[in-house]
Amino acid sequence: MEALKYVVLFVFGLAFGSFFNVLIYRLPRDLSVVSPGSYCPHCKKHIRWYDNIPLLSYVILRAKCRYCGAPISIRYPLVELVGGLILAGIPFLGSLWGDTNVPVGRVNPIHDAFAIAVVSIFFLVLVIDFEHQIIPDQLSVALFAIGWLGVLFLRPGFSPGWLSSLIGMFALSIFFLIFAMAIGGFGIGDVKLAVGMGAVYGWQQLIVVAMLSFVAGGIVAAIYAVYLLFRRKYRTRIQIPFGPYLALGAIVSVFFAQRIMDWYLAFFK
Ligand SMILES: [Zn+2]
């Protein structure tokens, strides 16, 4: 029966993933996310429900629009799959707001719902910022709201607490704001994301998220720099949007923050 629960969550998650696809397409283009229903971005024809079944329709239609034959990106089924993995994976693995008194994973359904919402939003940030170099305000505002709902309605120990969230809102965002104004390394979108992120994680876990992001961003920048050297492109400026790495750090920390903090603190014992 335990396994069946995760299968059901996975199937529901595929529908979530289908909605992620809508958001990923429409949010950065400032289109309404509720109407009209799904349509082909190429011929604009309405997609019927039987052509909109997660994973299956992609295979049945052989990755082509039924009407105009335009290719459907592999990204659609992949995003649907991620939706399934988030919904089934968080209750199995997740530990948003790591608490040493609570075993990792299988905490409680409300806590799981918060973690699912947070990971979903960061996944959207990851894909949209990577493709468009935009972080839609709606996503940062949603994080801010989730953070404070957690502070108000979750039991202590299941949320970072109001003071930690309040400090978290300013900790990283002020740092980004200074950089954005001084050297332009970060955009204002990153600043707003950091406010929402701080509200969700509180300042302690935010440090872990920031560390993970800088490490991931640094590794990619270093690889890219070496690649440019080999291609003898000495004058190319390295510009990598930082939002995707922030999102990546935020997602990884949902699963591993507590373990990383324990591991880090062990050095000082
Ligand atoms: Zn079409």
Write up what this structure looks like.
With 269 residues, the protein is mainly α. It has 2 domains: 1-93, no CATH class; 100-269, no CATH class. Helix content is 66%, strand content 0%. It contains 8 helices and no strands. The chain has helices at residues 2-26, 56-60, 75-93, 109-132, 137-153, 162-182, 188-230, 243-265. α1 crosses α3 (75-93), α3 (75-93) runs antiparallel to α4 and α4 packs across α8 (243-265). The longest helix has 43 residues, at 188-230. Mean pLDDT is 87; it is low at 99-105. The structure holds zinc ion. Zinc ion (ZN) binds at residues 40, 42-43, 45, 65, 67-68, 70. Zinc ion (ZN) binds next to loops.
How would you concisely characterize the structure shown here?
By secondary structure, the chain is an all-alpha fold. The protein folds into two domains: 1-93, no CATH class; 100-269, no CATH class. Helix content is 66%, strand content 0%.
Shape: globular
Number of helices, counting only DSSP H or I runs of 4 residues or more:
8
Q: How many structural domains does the protein architecture include?
A: 2
Q: From the alpha-carbon coordinates, what is the Rg to the nearest angstrom?
A: 20 Å
Oligomer: single chain
Mean pLDDT: 87
- Percent helix, as a range, is 55-70%
Question: What is the total tally of β strands?
Answer: 0
Largest sheet: none
User: Could you say which structural class the secondary elements and strand pairing correspond to?
Assistant: mainly alpha
Q: What small molecules does this complex bind?
A: zinc ion
**Percentage beta strand:** under 5%
Distance between the termini: 43 Å
Q: What's the helix-strand series?
A: HHHHHHHH
Low-confidence stretches: 99-105
